[in-house]
């Protein structure tokens, strides 16, 4: 039986850019799928197709048991969408925004009013409830946007980069809210560029690049794919990088990566703490002074790098702009080999 | 019906916004008031209408033109508002809700109609102050304003389509205004079209905008002495012509705008 969110072979092209190049998704009821990828990977386009905002060129999508392409109106009754732009009316107060959304979900006036008050309380916006939203901070606006998506407690939620641009404290707060929501049984599809966020919130992660899902699994499964643990060394002097690299090569089970500006060297290893001690002794005997050394489990950043061949944060991208997600023309789709 | 209630919810939302951005209404008033004052006092004595060169006759002749021009500016308001909603992601929010299709646009154009009404009231008061008078019964005068408002409502649907078609609110404002100048000037709004060269005169006589102006002049009793009504059908039957044009504009542009809305992407 397909999950609460199901997609098969979704394709969407904008001009000659294939924003979605055959995306398959299956999110079981009550779980969270993290759609992880850089700007331009196709995450937003996927969300827009699943939330009836965009019609895919081909493929199939079923949300909450309803065919998205055949019965979009029916789907809209069962979903909540919270975007990366905090889509609230800035001249309306928080309360007015939520009441308006309630009315548009066909709630009677009184019910919409009561629900708005409840959500304002729940999202710690009660004090600011009667101020226009344009006086809100970034974090407050996101919370209001999220509250707006939750007015009818939809069984299926979509959040497109819910914490992009938020400071760490606000991000943490929003994570708590999202966790509460999911513990109540809501099925959630969440897109993010933050590996930490997917790691933190999602039961399963789908890594998206160039409009297709290139890997999926739990965070642990994905980490296991990149190999096990690794030794990370920060040498004190830049001049020692070459020698240290040579030493690590002797112990490593794979390629040593070097970050020149931070003087950090990383190499995959097996052998745990015992091996670490050996590495330290060897470095010491060669007279290499070290600032930091440790045994690290792979982060999702490592996963991303090993899967896509490029880092998760792609600097040349257009930023948090919706158009960026269509993918710049110079990023040709290429097949990645997953080991 | 959810189509009606959704439209009302959106209209209410836009009216609350307008109340919180009063400068938009004020700026919307400055231009027509300026036109009233400038045309009355600068051109008033030198423009001949019908067989009259009296300032008072021109003053009365002029007001229907300025009223009509003012209601067409609703185009820019609707366009800019909808482009702004697209830009801010609100249209995405609305499109993801189980709303009646078209309600976002209908609600916006309804709110614009309220704003246009307010603008017309203020403008009519200013017009009365500078000496404009009507010479028909009250029902006819009201009918004149109704014809004006219907035209304004029709034009806000053109604005809605423009707003959905451009990328920024700024583009919607200028895109909503720029073509209004030739439209309103190649018409009978400010001068007696009988005095135009033949080819312009034909355009002016069939201009949808002219029909409304002519209808108002008849309903207000503001046709100057010795004015010869042109033979063109819309000028002979201006009230009907105005209604037909407005309904036609609504039918065409509403259809196009709603279709565009359904596929709109920010």
From TrEMBL, chain A:
One of its GO terms (cellular component) is plasma membrane. Belongs to the ABC transporter superfamily. Drug exporter-1 (DrugE1) (TC 3.A.1.105) family. This is ABC-type xenobiotic transporter. Pfam families: ABC_tran, DrrA1-3_C. GO terms for biological process: daunorubicin transport; doxorubicin transport; response to antibiotic. InterPro entries: AAA+_ATPase, ABC_transporter-like_ATP-bd, ABC_transporter-like_CS, ABC_transporter_ATP-binding, DrrA, DrrA1/2-like_C, P-loop_NTPase. Its EC number is 7.6.2.2. Residues 310-339 are annotated as: Disordered. The keyword RNA-binding does not apply. It comes from the Bacteria. Residues 5-235 form the ABC transporter domain. Residues 326-339 have a biased composition (Basic and acidic residues). Signal peptide: none annotated. It is found in: Cell membrane. GO terms for molecular function: ABC-type xenobiotic transporter activity; ATP binding; ATP hydrolysis activity.
TrEMBL record, chain B:
One of its GO terms (molecular function) is ABC-type transporter activity. This is Transport permease protein. Belongs to the ABC-2 integral membrane protein family. GO terms for biological process: response to antibiotic. Keywords: Antibiotic resistance, Cell membrane, Membrane, Transmembrane, Transmembrane helix, Transport. It is found in: Cell membrane; Membrane. GO terms for cellular component: ATP-binding cassette (ABC) transporter complex. Residues 23-264 form the ABC transmembrane type-2 domain. It holds the Pfam family ABC2_membrane. Its main location: membrane. It comes from Streptomyces naganishii JCM 4654. It is a multi-pass membrane protein. The keyword Membrane applies. InterPro entries: ABC2_TM (IPR013525), ABC2_TM_bact-type (IPR047817), ABC_2_transport (IPR000412), Nod_factor_ABC_transporter (IPR051784). The chain crosses the membrane at residues 21-41, 61-83, 113-132, 138-164, 171-191, 239-257.
């Amino acid at each position: 039986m397909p999950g609460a969110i199901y997609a098969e072979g979704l394709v969407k092209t904008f001009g000659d850019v294939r924003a979605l190049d055959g995306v398959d998704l299956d999110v079981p009821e009550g779980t969270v799928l993290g759609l992880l990828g850089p700007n331009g990977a196709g995450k937003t386009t996927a969300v827009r197709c699943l939330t009836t905002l965009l019609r895919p060129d081909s493929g199939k999508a079923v949300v909450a048991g309803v065919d998205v392409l055949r019965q979009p109106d029916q789907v809209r009754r069962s979903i909540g969408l919270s975007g990366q732009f905090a889509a609230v009316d800035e001249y309306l107060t928080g309360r007015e925004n939520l009441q308006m959304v309630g009315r548009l979900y066909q709630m009677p006036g009184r019910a919409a009013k009561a629900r708005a008050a409840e959500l304002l309380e729940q999202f710690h916006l009660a004090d600011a409830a009667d101020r226009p939203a344009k006086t809100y901070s970034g974090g407050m606006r996101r919370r209001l946007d999220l509250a707006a998506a939750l007015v009818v407690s939809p069984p299926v939620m979509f959040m497109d980069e819910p914490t992009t641009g938020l400071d760490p404290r606000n991000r943490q707060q929003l994570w708590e809210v999202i966790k509460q929501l999911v513990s109540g049984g809501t099925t959630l599809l969440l897109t993010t560029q933050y590996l930490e966020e997917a790691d933190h919130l999602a039961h399963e992660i789908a890594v998206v690049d160039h409009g297709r899902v290139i890997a999926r699994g739990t965070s642990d499964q994905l980490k296991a794919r990149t190999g096990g643990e690794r030794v990370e060394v920060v040498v004190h002097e830049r001049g020692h990088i070459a020698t240290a690299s040579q030493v690590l090569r002797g112990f490593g089970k794979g390629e040593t990566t070097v970050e020149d500006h931070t003087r950090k060297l990383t190499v995959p290893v097996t052998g745990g703490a015992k091996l670490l001690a050996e590495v330290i002794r060897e470095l010491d005997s060669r007279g290499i002074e070290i600032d930091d050394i440790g045994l690290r489990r792979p982060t999702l950043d490592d996963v991303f790098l090993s899967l896509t061949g490029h880092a998760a944060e792609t600097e040349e991208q257009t930023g948090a702009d919706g158009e960026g997600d269509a993918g710049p023309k110079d990023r040709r789709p290429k097949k990645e080999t997953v080991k | 019906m959810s189509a009606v209630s959704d439209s009302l919810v959106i209209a209410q939302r836009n009216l609350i916004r307008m109340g919180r951005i009063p400068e938009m209404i004020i700026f919307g008033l400055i231009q027509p008031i300026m036109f009233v004052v400038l045309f009355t006092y600068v051109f008033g004595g030198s423009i001949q209408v019908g067989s009259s060169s009296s300032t008072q006759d021109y003053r009365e002749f002029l007001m229907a033109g300025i009223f009509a021009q003012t209601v067409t500016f609703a185009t820019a308001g609707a366009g800019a508002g909808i482009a702004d909603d697209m830009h801010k992601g609100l249209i995405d929010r609305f499109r993801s809700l189980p709303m009646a299709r078209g309600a976002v646009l209908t609600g916006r154009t309804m709110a614009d109609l309220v704003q246009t009404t307010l603008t017309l009231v203020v403008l009519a008061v200013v017009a009365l102050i500078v000496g404009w008078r009507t010479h028909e019964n009250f029902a006819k005068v009201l009918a004149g304003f109704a014809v004006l408002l219907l035209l304004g409502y029709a034009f806000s649907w053109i604005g809605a389509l423009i707003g959905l078609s451009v990328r920024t609110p700024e583009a919607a404002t200028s895109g909503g205004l720029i073509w209004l100048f030739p439209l309103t000037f190649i018409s009978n709004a400010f001068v007696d079209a009988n005095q135009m060269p033949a080819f312009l005169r034909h355009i002016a006589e069939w201009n949808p905008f002219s029909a409304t102006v002519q209808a108002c002049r008849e309903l207000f009793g503001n046709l100057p002495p010795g004015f010869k009504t042109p033979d063109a059908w819309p000028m002979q039957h201006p009230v009907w012509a105005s209604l037909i044009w407005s309904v036609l504009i609504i039918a065409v542009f509403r259809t196009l705008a709603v279709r565009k809305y359904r596929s709109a992407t920010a």
